[in-house]
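Homework help thread (please don't just give me the answer)

Our assignment gives two proteins as sequence + structure token strings and asks us to describe the second one. The first is just a warm-up. Here they are:
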Amino acid sequence: MDSDEEKLQYLGFLGIFKESFKIVVSWKKIFTQITLSFILPLSILFLVQIHVSEYLERRIRFVRYRLYHRGDEDEYLSSERLEYWLIKIAYLVFLLVLSLLSTSAVVYTVACNYTGKPITFKKIMSVVPKVWKRVTITFIWSFLIHLAYSLCFLGAIVMWAMLIGFSSVGIAIWYVLLILFFVGFVYLSIVWQLASVVSVLEEENYGIKAMVKSINLIEGKRRVTSFIFLLLVLFYYGILIVYQLFAVYSWNIGTMVGIGILCLVLLMFLFLFGLVIQTVIYFVCKSYHCESIDKPALANHLEAYFQSEPQRDATKDVQLEQVHVATKDAQLDQVYV
């Protein structure tokens, strides 16, 4: 393990933030281009949907109130609800696409920083579509695991309501269930974020394999990663609350514009910084478990994204032939000895 890996091994809470900030500053040109291409549209989409959702919910409430007093059928209200959910679904799809593209671009860039591999924004744009496929598969597995976890919690709530109910003991159990659910949900979210990094940087690990590898990497650094995740979530909700109070519900145009721009800038930085941090955490966890970061092999893996599939398969075949020949030579040496 070289000196750089030893430094990563002992990075703690503040050290990870310092390392991430140093990477962003040293590669500010590339990260600025990534931010303008992926993270800025992601942040704008997120803030705009808050206004759109608020407007649609207000309109649904007005239609419901008018229909209630007129005694009319709620066919019009159903169409309003359908419009609301269609917009929500479209928003979630675009949000997911931009989020996965941002993750792929940032993780690839940070990895190039650690390998010393020269990188340009043009290369990133050519690599991201290939990396994005692996990250998407990992996201699908993460979504299914989160869904199964939520259904199990729902089943536990149903059993609690049927067997215990709102007694003094039942309320205490209810709070215990909520705390356990929250802790488990946070842990699964951290696993998914680290699995996204694994999907980009490790050739054979994506999907469920990336999730398993992520669980193994987090062991020993669970407390630090949890604190970092919770801090980023607190910043996220802080920005959200400020935006809703002073931009969505404010009647002052100047305040709306000023706070809106401020929240947009903060949200962009938070998204970018969060993605860099989760990549740094990957390298920290690797070093902590004494898994040597093979920089030449990682650089070759990153370079392989530029190759077509036949070229990548040919490269794998050559590597397998070399391993096979080396194994045979070793066996022959043992025989002659």
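The one we have to describe:
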Amino acid sequence: MTLGKLSNLIELNLTDMKIRGEMPQFLANLTQLSSLVIYSNELVGQIPSWLMNLTKLTSLELTENQLHGMIPSAISQLKYLEWLNLDGNNLSSEVELDIFLKLQNLVVLELSGNKLTVVTKNITNATLPKFKVLGLESCNMKEFPNLLQFQDELELLFFDNDKIQGEKPTWFWNNTNENIREVQLGNNFLIGFEQHPDVIPWRSLLILDLSFNRLQGSLPIPPLSTIVYEVTGNSLSGEIPPSIICHNSSLKFLDLSNNNLSGTIPQCLPSFSDSLLVLNLSHNNFHGTIPNMIGINLKMIDLSQNQLHGLVPRSLENCTMLEILLLGNNQMEGTFPSWLGALPKLQVLIL
């Protein structure tokens, strides 16, 4: 019996099956399907119109194929759809975000990694889908869609590699602060904040990427829940607020490199470095000495291209997991720290 004759089938997962060619026509017969997953195959052609006949779909995932052309506006007819993932194809043309807002049950929308231009309208009606995941990476967006004002259940937000300009609007901070766990805003043209928060008010945040924008002013302080914090490649200035390093026992990845930050590296670093895996403060204007670091889990330390002086701290010999240590282009003094040769995993050393 072929799959096309299984007319009562409700779930079909064809992940990584090396399926080639256009979407199989027999799928049109499976009108009872609630979940269709054709992930990581070699599908080509356009999204077929007959797909809209599968009116009971709640989940549609066509991720990582080679589909091209438009996203048909008729996709808004799939009124039970909760999960739509079209990531990693070659879909192109302009698409209005409005067509997805008609899907009242939609909680996951992933359009990243295509060649789309997503355009939005000013939303005044708060009767919208309540998204948990909104993935619009590399979608040529020029502004934050104001529908975010009404999203108080959002958990994952991917707007990196877009063309978003100007300042983050004040309302951007006002919602989703209970649930949001990951925010990716890297590689845009953001310059700052309409209202600079003392501490970013997303209390469950784990990952925040603001790298490679044009942010100016003082360093935004992430909440204590943050594990990964990246702001490399901006024009941020001022000192590192001690609260980022001294009170956050969760942080594992801290990258403040390629900014205009100054002052000294907070001396409370030893109490913080146990949790840290990666510390990158390179290409700034830090001065003073390097604090003692005793982080047993540290794998990378990059303090290069600053104005640091003094001795290489002997406490680094306790960082037994260290693989990369970059201290070049500073004003370090003393004799060569030969004791670094005892570090069992050290692979890259630049003094």
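TA reply:
I won't write it for you, but here's a hint about the kind of observation we're looking for: The chain is about 5% helix and 25% strand.
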